[in-house]
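$ fold --in a.seq
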Amino acid sequence: HGRALEFVPEKLKTPELYFNAVQSNGSALEFVPEVLITPEISLAAVQSNGYALKYIPTGLLTAEICSAAVQQCGRALEYMPEALKTAEVCLAAVKMDGTALEYVPESLKTWEVCFAAVKADGRSIEHVPEELMTPEICLAAIRQEGRALKFVPKQLRTPELCLAAVTSDQKSIY
């Protein structure tokens, strides 16, 4: 288990051991000395665990590493520098995990990105900008998670939408 790296005696820690540890569990990157964090070990870490992105020095973050991170874990978008967030990367992130919509910059929240997010996780409707809240987005969210109804604007709560909510998730009626 890669996180066991924390307990390996210093004299036994080698670059190869560090690399094997992060391949096993990307979060082991937390225990790799910064001077030994290379683009190669960074990529291996995020391919194993996208959240490892938070342990990579800013100077080593590239589009390739960030893209690999969100493909493994959409919410890794939280740790990506704004400058590297593109429409393509954000769409990939929300398709992987709809709740990653929370970390998509407002300027990149398009109808397509928001629709993909609510299809993946209806709860992400909470982060859909009001001007993008359409009946289609609301229905997709409700079909995925009935309790998302609480985030649907009252004027969009149609009989069809409410029926979809209560039949997809019994808790939505409480």
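$ fold --in b.seq
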Amino acid sequence: ERDFETAEVFPKERDKKEYKDIDILIIDRQNHKAIIIENKIYARDSNSDKDGQLERYFKRVNKKEGISKEEITTLYLTLDGHEPSDESLGAYKNLESINGQCIAYSDFIIKWLDRCIKEAANSPYLRESISQYKSLIEKHKNFLEVFDSKGEVFKTLFYYSDESMLWAANYLSL
């Protein structure tokens, strides 16, 4: 279990801006740790002639933020847990070399939310928000975009709250 009490989450709650194109970045500059989460829902990797997407993100956090390679965790989040392309990994060749793992909404995220629900036992509002969110994910199989009764995209307060994401990161055990 990692301690992310001094961490910062991107995208930010206020402006929703990603950190240099990384879908979700949880970075603790004080303790020199980071989690990169690349979310792939019906999308291809954004590779270039120079480098692969995951390669670029890993190097960016390592070099620009000064986080050692050993302290960066890379999560490749997809509906079914499939592997990233070789092109996305670039020079790294495999997920292990970027401390990576594939995770799926249908498995990992549901189990993680179950843990969050237990941890929030003494916070009824948060617990029920997470529980409702889990129900929507189970129905739609999607962590970031779920749909309301009118079929419109519904982003939960849990996702948009920096505090909630930091709270969740404290219980994200890899």
